[in-house]
Every structure is written in C-alpha cells, then in structure tokens.
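Sample A.
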Amino acid sequence: MIGLGTYAYFWQHSDRAPEPLSLIGAFEDTRAQGVDLFQICDYAPLERMSDDEVRDAAAAARDLGLTIELGTKGIVPAHLSRFLELAAIFDARLVRSMLYGPDSRPTLDEAETWLRDSIRSYEAAGVTLALETYEQVPTAELVGIIERVGSPNLGICLDPANVVAQLENPKTCVELTAALTKNIHVKDFAFARQPGWVGFTYSGAAMGTGLHDYAQLLAAVQPRERGINEIVEHWLPWQDDAETTIRTEREWTRTALDYLRSTTS
C-alpha cells in the first residue's frame, strides 16, 4: 500500500508555516489525495497528547478510512511499550523506530537485549517493529541484530538515502536488507555542487529526478507482492519563503504519488 507520512508534511506542520497543519489536517489532506495510509513518524506532539487527544485523532483517522502506522526513535523497552499502547489506540500494525533515541545510544549487545525484552509483547499484539537503516549504525550490524533476535515481528524500515552518510552504497543497503524489510520510506536524493565548487550538498529531490534507483529496490524487495507499505516522505530544504516551500512540498508529494502509482501497473 502507498502511504504518506508526517515527513511529507514537514514544513506544513512546522511553526514556519503561516497556519501550521494539524495532525488531523494531514489525515484529511492524505485522504483527499486518494491515499489510504498515513504514518505518524517522529511527530513530537504525539507524545505530548493526552489519552483523550490521542483517541480523538485515532477516531478521525478511522472516520476517514485511513490505516495508521507509527514511528519513533529509540528502543528503550519502556518507550517501545508506550508506543505499543499507542498502536493499540490507532489500530496500527507497525511501529518504525531506530536503535538510537534522543537519550539512549545502546551498544549492540544492549540493543539486542532490549529488543528481546520488547519483541514478545509486539508479537502478542500482532504489531511489527521496523528498525530504520540510517548512518549511525552500519547496515550489516543492524541486520545482524535483527537476525540474532529472530522474530517475525522484527525487521527493517528501508531508507537507503540515510546510509550514504556512512559511505554505504544505497543499492548495497537494499540488497542487504531486502529479505528483512517490513516497511519502506520513499524519497529521492541527489548531490549538488556548493557555490564556488567547494563541496557538495546532499539533499532531497523530486521523486524520479535524483539518484535513487527505485526500480532496483522494487525488484529486490518486491514490496507489492509481499504486502510491504511504501511511505512517501521528503528531504526538502527551505526554499527562501514559506509559500514557496510549502507549494514545493505539496508538488513533491504529488510527483511521488504519481511515480509510485505509475509503477504498480
């Protein structure tokens, strides 16, 4: 299933927007674009909401016919337990996270222990925990932890854009993680020369215009055949003013949706 996530609304949610978009507003916009899946990922207000506010947001998603996934950072068992509670409220079947959180940087041995402590509860609830590929942990080490824990409810959230900062090749990341992938973050990326030819900027690009070989990912992972959801997000730099930035963000979303839909036929 193709979905949108909060990173597709990064600037629309931000306090730099003239009228920041609420979470329910993002739900409504997602549905208006003919999309049935939304991933609430690294959305800080979610953890500050009261239980009543969370239930209201979940009810709004259900009324709109949206399937919800959740995303956070860190694998401290108490934190993962809280997100399992939130998943129950939203009827979410997947939680995306990362090994490192804002206040925790476990060793690989600690990470394995913490995941073993948490994953049985996820199995019992029928919820998948998907750990994202990113630059702070080499992909091979992340794969090794997941394989050693050995749970069908533990896998990879595949985002090959992140691992370039680890000097990994995105295509190699895809190949290493294909069998374990449970979720995909979809965005294109590219390098651009800095003014004066003194280095590069690595940033987002409109889907289909950058370096991401998405056809290779589709062939290796086979997400449509395996029922793996593809979540659109962006790395869009600020475009000098709010109006231009938000307009570009929305254009990138439409481009990404058109691109993904064109590959399903």
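Sample B.
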Amino acid sequence: MSWLLLLVAAVFEMVWALGLKHTDGFTDFWPSVGTLAAMAVSVYLLSMAVEDLPIGTAYAVWTGIGAAGTAIAGIYLFDEPFTAARIGFVGLIVLGVVGLQATGAGH
C-alpha cells in the first residue's frame, strides 16, 4: 500500500509542477489554488508512504517519478525540446526509480 501511496503522491507532484506554468507567479488565483492543493496532497501522501518506507528511498522515488513525468509531460503539453539526450536522461531517472523498487528497498 505504501508504494501505491507513493505513486499517487508522485502523480500529484507532476500536477503541481505542471500547474506552476499556469500560475503566473502565483498571481492567477485559480491556477494557484489548484497548484497549492496538489502540493498539499502530494506532500501528505508522501508523509503517509514514509511511515513504512525509508525516507531516502521514498523521497528519491517521489522526486524521480515527478521529475521524469514532468519532463515528458512538458514535451507534450508545452512543446519543450524532444531530443535523444533528453529522453535518455529521463530514462536514467526511471531506471533509478525502478531499481530502488526492484531491489526491495523499503520492503
């Protein structure tokens, strides 16, 4: 269950990171409210996940999924550069996240 909470927390991390693009420096009210709400949900779910998972593993997975997912979403949503190097490095992040989970870290 902790891994599922962590995965959902990471999805909300991607939501708030992508939401930052729409807040206009937190001057646009509703996008700012949505972004802050996603931040709160993300951190709350992370805090629940670390009750059973090591903090180092959980935080690395949370930020890794958030960073990789946000980078990929940025390519599709915001026309950010799509290069082999960029995708390769995102792949390394994903490999690290999978490696942490597969090696039983936190079980």
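B remarks: The chain has a mean pLDDT of 93. Residues 52 and 74 are 32 Å apart (CA to CA).
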